[in-house]
Amino acid sequence: MNTNIVYTSNSLEYLGLHFLSHSLDSFLADPARANETLLESLHAFVDIEYCQRKERAARTRIKVSGMPAIKRLDEFDLSWLKGGLTQAKFKELSSLSFIERKENVIMLGPSGLGKSHLMLALGHHACLNGYTAYYLSCRDAVDILKRADQAGRLKRKLKWLAKPRVLLLDEVGYETLSQEQASLLFQLINARYEHGSMIMTSNKNFGEWAELMSDEAVATAMLDRLLHHAHVLSLKGPSYRMKDRIKAGLVDFV
What we know:
CATH architecture of the largest domain: 3-Layer(aba) Sandwich
Largest sheet: 5 strands, parallel
Shape: elongated
CATH superfamily of the largest domain: P-loop containing nucleotide triphosphate hydrolases
Order of helices and strands: HHHHHEHEHHEHEHHEH
Number of strands: 5
Number of helices: 12
Strand content: 5-15%
Number of domains: 2
Distance between the termini: 67 Å
CATH topology of the largest domain: Rossmann fold
């Protein structure tokens, strides 16, 4: 091998540019490089390291997000819904501009409409595009906060949960919360208020939250913060989970 190539490859390795070091020889041997300007070749060469690091970082963000499954936006069948999410709104959410603006996305509707699917798809999309995300069910969230409170570490845990650029909070409303649990959930929402986005799913309309939280004052304060900067999607339609069976004629109801 050419000594200049060996020297350059070793130097790249020393600088921590491992992908460039391993790709140098094949890059220089590629006939496609012959007709490029120096700047075009430099751009293509640097892109090798950049893309590999970006992909590796995205995999790490997905791994530490706690998301229970990988869902993708291109897998979500928007046409199945009968209301609550237009193509324009879907495109807007897919741009992730709501994360930059620290806005919330709240999805309401009965079980089976694909709320969690869409939440996880947005979370996955966020991780691929450089944002940190973290997933919790409502039950897990209040349990974690209660244990932290009992250990005298509530403030530290709230600070930690305020760090991800987007927090995914699933299944709010599937269980009625005690006043203590509702207070802890409020503190989480308050900690993220105007500091980071939340994507939340709930099977309860906002009018039912006073009963859900066992405290009207806490429910009101919670909604005040959640809805101040929010996209509210009231989804309507048949069960998203059953759509393939229904389309195949295996289920005779919609």
